[in-house]
Amino acid sequence: MNTVTAFAPASVGNVGVGFDILGHTIAGPGDRVSVRRIDERLVRIAAIRGAAIELPREAERNTAGAALLALRATLDLPFGFEIEIDKGIAFGSGMGGSAASAVAALVAANALLDTPLERAALYPFALDGEAVASGGRHGDNVGPMLLGGLVLATADRLGPIPVQRNLECALVHPHATLETKRARAALAGHYELREFVAQSANLALVLAGCHANDVELIRAGLADVLVEPRRAPLIEGFTAVKAAALSNGALGASISGAGPSVFAWCDGASAANACAQAMRDAFARSGVASEAWVSPVAGPAAEVVA
After folding, report:
1. What does the pLDDT average to over 209-233?
2. What are the backbone angles phi and psi of residue 12, rounded to the nearest 5°?
């Protein structure tokens, strides 16, 4: 075997209250990456398909390529990799597209190693790949993709968070693009200490609610008071879309990753489906077309598919 294909699912980064450290995967959309083991001691990208914009073909400037360069260098491998990427996540969607390419490439390449690494051991290389696109080593997208489900991802550690089976996510992607670097630029400026205290309290409530299987704790905490107010103006119709989710029973709703996608957590699939439709209708009233997915919060991990 010298070629492996892996699939990495989309994700909801930040989950509102866990900026750069909390995320979960979504069943449905994702990236497929095929990796071939080659004798040359290098990493090259042979093809990128399905991208609406031209993505870098130089390995060091591509998230998948950078991740495998880091893997090669750290393990001092006597061989290299050739990569083909099939994009299934829209650019600038807030659904972890850059992270998915990096993680799928790593999972495929790992299967080609003589002694494959544990999933968590791939985390530093995934961060190296993610940093190419976002400018920072944050794991709220790559961590959940590596392990599946809801994950707390710190600078050097991944912590899976237990999630009840009936906790569902409605994710709505408006047909618009918001580049991560622009969304991060909106966060510059002064913050009050009380904002950090409130956000920390909300994160604690959500994590406690997940561990205790208590949706009311989750409902009490799932409100982003730190980042959302600064990014919401970048998303056409956001206020109405969030209101639509909450009025249809969502436990909470906020911006997925850097946006412009919007997510809502719900108690049960029927509530999530109702929220998804209401959110799409709200986007439509703002003149914005959209698409939606409903998935368990405990979504899938990246996996080898061929």
Report:
1. 97
2. -105, 105
